[in-house]
Every structure is written in structure tokens, then in C-alpha cells.
Design goal:
The protein has about 280 residues and is of the alpha/beta class. The protein has two domains: about 1-180, Rossmann fold; about 190-280, Pantoate-beta-alanine ligase, C-terminal domain (Pantoate--beta-alanine Ligase, Chain: A,domain 2, 2-Layer Sandwich), CATH 3.30.1300.10. It has helices at about 5-20, 35-50, 80-90, 100-105, 125, 130-145, 155-170, 200-205, 205-220, 225-240; strands spanning about 1-5, 25-30, 55-60, 95, 150-155, 175-180, 240-250, 265-270, 275-280. The strands form two sheets. A six-stranded parallel β-sheet has the order 1-4-3-2-5-6, with helices on both faces. Strands 7-8-9 form a three-stranded antiparallel β-sheet, with helices on one face. The longest helix is centred in the middle third of the chain and has 16 residues, at about 130-145.
């Protein structure tokens, strides 16, 4: 696996990969990798393999300060460089980009990406400025690596839709691939922050996904969405979750809808102890 820590190294490695491997797929991450991240690499490889050339898969690791608001867990965000490198090598990653802060933000930058549409509401309300930070760093990574495709997990479903809209609006010419959420055996969506759950919280956390399935089953049976969502929220609260939102939304626009339809997504965010859990399921 090639590792680039400077922009010059990145450009040299990309030039060589383009010549010998053809298409490049990108998996942007903030490190602290788990099997969910590795499933994105596998998906990216499946997208770029062509009969004439095998394609190449690149990953980036950068804990992006611009997407953390004041008081959020930037300093606490888990970091494991040696472990991440080992996992990527085992997974067959071809190129790892590990930029320094100065490679991403000069300190005098005058441009950021302000996003609307699917960025409004939900995480956009709960974490003001978050999607501006996400969109800006993703745009920078796209400019540095210029991938043909990029893979993002569906666990952060609103983020996926924000990136898709940005790529379409700004004509990046990159195909964005959403990859199904990888889960633990008990249904909990894999996340780097799960390690901060206490044993008691970890035992309780799968109830979030179980609630989504129960609520969706009720919606499919024809029950009124408003009543189902209210009862589900009360159930989570009784279980010790502090619910930020639970909503039935249109998958593309993220706007709330009042009836189940084929494009619907059920999304939730809830605090459990010190950890904020996100999950979603499709109709």
C-alpha cells in the first residue's frame, strides 16, 4: 500500500496509479477504522475493476476540525494510525492519503462550501455548521484525488445525500455510491464512537435499531405515521435514550413526509450516555 503524507507524494502516487490501474475509487474516513469502513473499500473496488485494468482504491484519513462545533468531541475523537494502516493493508487498499491540517486548511482560506437542500434540518439543526465542514473537506479531497467514484456509508444517510447534492450541483463528475450500513450481530450500526459506550449502554444500544424495525413494520401495516413516531419516541425515552429526532422523510430531499411511500426513509438520532447514535432504515 502506498502512503502519502504530503501533496507532492499524493500527486506522484496518483499519477502512477492512473497509468497502471485506471479508475480510482475513494473512501474518505476520519480513521478509527472498523469493518464498516472496510466494507466501503470492498464496494469501491467492485466499482472500479474493469476488464482492461484492475482499478485502484484510495482511502483518506483526516479528522476534520471544520465539521466539529464548539463543545463537540474533536479532541476525544478516537485515533489509531498504526491500527488503521494495518487494517487498510489487509483489506487491499492501494493508496492511503494522510494529510496534515496545513494540507487541508491554510489558516487564511476564504472559501467554504455552504449547503442547503438535504443539509437543512435534522443533523443540520442539531450540529450547526456540521455539513458546511463535511462538504468543504469532501470537496477538497475530491480536488486533491480526483476519483472516478467515491463510497459513503448509509449510516450517515443525511451526509450521503448532502454529498450527492453537492456533487450534482457543482458538476464534479464523480459518481457517489451509497453502501449499506454494516451492523454488529445484535443490529447496532458500526461506528467509531461505539467504543465509548459503557457495558450497560452497549447492551441497550441495539434497541435503537429494533425500534426502527418495529416502527417501520407498523407503518407498512397502515398505521398513522404521527402516532407511530410519537409512540416510538416515548419508548426510546423510557429506555434511557435522549432522542434528538425521529422522522419519516423523503430519501432524496430529507423533507418530512406524512405517509409511507417507496422513497421514504426512517431516520433517528439519540444520545445514550456520552455517545450520540444515528441510524436509519428504508421503506
Amino acid at each position: 500500500m502506498l502512503i502519502a503524507r504530503t501533496l507532492n507524494e499524493l500527486r506522484d502516487h496518483l499519477r502512477a496509479l492512473r497509468q497502471t490501474r485506471g479508475m480510482i475509487g475513494l473512501v474518505p474516513t476520519m480513521g478509527a477504522l472498523h469493518e464498516g469502513h472496510l466494507s466501503l473499500l470492498a464496494a469501491a473496488r467492485g466499482e472500479v475493476v474493469r476488464p482492461a485494468k484492475p482499478g485502484a482504491v484510495a482511502a483518506s484519513i483526516f479528522v476534520n476540525p471544520l465539521q466539529f462545533a464548539a463543545g463537540e468531541d474533536l479532541a476525544r475523537y478516537p485515533r489509531d494510525e498504526a491500527g488503521d494502516i494495518s487494517k487498510l493493508e489487509t483489506a487491499g487498499c492501494d493508496l492511503l492519503w494522510m494529510p496534515a491540517d496545513a494540507d487541508m486548511y491554510s489558516g487564511s482560506d476564504a472559501t467554504v462550501i455552504d449547503v442547503g437542500g438535504p443539509a437543512l434540518g435534522w443533523e443540520g439543526d442539531a450540529r450547526p455548521g456540521h455539513f458546511r465542514g463535511v462538504a468543504t473537506v469532501v470537496a477538497k479531497l475530491f480536488g486533491q484525488i480526483r476519483p472516478d467514484i467515491a463510497c459513503f456509508g448509509e449510516k450517515d444517510f443525511q451526509q450521503l445525500q448532502v454529498v450527492r447534492r453537492m456533487v450534482a450541483d457543482l458538476a464534479f463528475g464523480i459518481r457517489i455510491v451509497g453502501v449499506a450500513t454494516l451492523r454488529e450481530a445484535d443490529g447496532l450500526a458500526m461506528s467509531s464512537r461505539n467504543r465509548f459506550l459503557t457495558a450497560a449502554e452497549r447492551a441497550k444500544a441495539p434497541r435503537l435499531h429494533a425500534m426502527l424495525h418495529s416502527a417501520m413494520t407498523q407503518l407498512r401495516s397502515g398505521l398513522n405515521p404521527a402516532g407511530v413516531l410519537a409512540a416510538s419516541r416515548m419508548s426510546l425515552t423510557a429506555d434511557g435514550f435522549n432522542v434528538d429526532y425521529l422522522a419519516l422523510v423523503d430519501s432524496e430531499t430529507l423533507q418530512p413526509i406524512d405517509a409511507l411511500q417507496s422513497s421514504a426513509r426512517l431516520i433517528v438520532a439519540a444520545q445514550l450516555g456520552s455517545v450520540r447514535l444515528l441510524d436509519n432504515i428504508t421503506a
